Amino acid sequence: MKYDDIDRKLLNLLAEDGRLSYVELAEKVGLSRVAVKDRIQNLKEKGVIEKFTVVINSEKFGKNVSAFFEVDVEPKQLQEVAQNLANNTNVASIYQMTGPSTLHMHVLVEDFKKLETFINDELYSVEGITRVESSIILKRFKSRTGFKL
């Protein structure tokens, strides 16, 4: 699929502030409101724009501990384990990584006691997990909210 500079500019503007109106976007890219609406609808239909959402500051919402986990899983249980973990409300994101059936997981919890409970009661109890390695975030410099084109 080919996209021009206007599509890229629209996507960058929306990544910065997804609440911009078609009128505001049109003014910034030099097109009419209708042309911008059509372009955005086209980007949605082609799957370039998956959805519009809000980015929540987890710390201001009481989730003060942010940790990443590398979780090795028995290959035959990978899908089941991944779905089980994905359904956990503490899991912010989960990805299958290259290597021997490894899942990369981002977890947000209120405090270290909740992290301990998550690890012991909700992670180690999952059948099929063979190894868990964790890292706690000390400071965030950049979060994924889209990327610049």
Automatic annotation (TrEMBL):
Residues 3-64 form the HTH asnC-type domain. Keywords: DNA-binding, Transcription, Transcription regulation. It holds the Pfam family HTH_24. InterPro entries: ArsR-like_HTH, AsnC-type_HTH_dom, Dimeric_a/b-barrel, Tscrpt_reg_AsnC-like, Tscrpt_reg_AsnC/Lrp_C, Tscrpt_reg_HTH_AsnC-type_CS, WH-like_DNA-bd_sf, WH_DNA-bd_sf. The keyword Transcription applies. Transmembrane segments: none annotated. The keyword DNA-binding applies. This is Lrp/AsnC family transcriptional regulator. It comes from Ornithinibacillus salinisoli. The lineage of its organism: Bacteria, Bacillati, Bacillota, Bacilli, Bacillales.
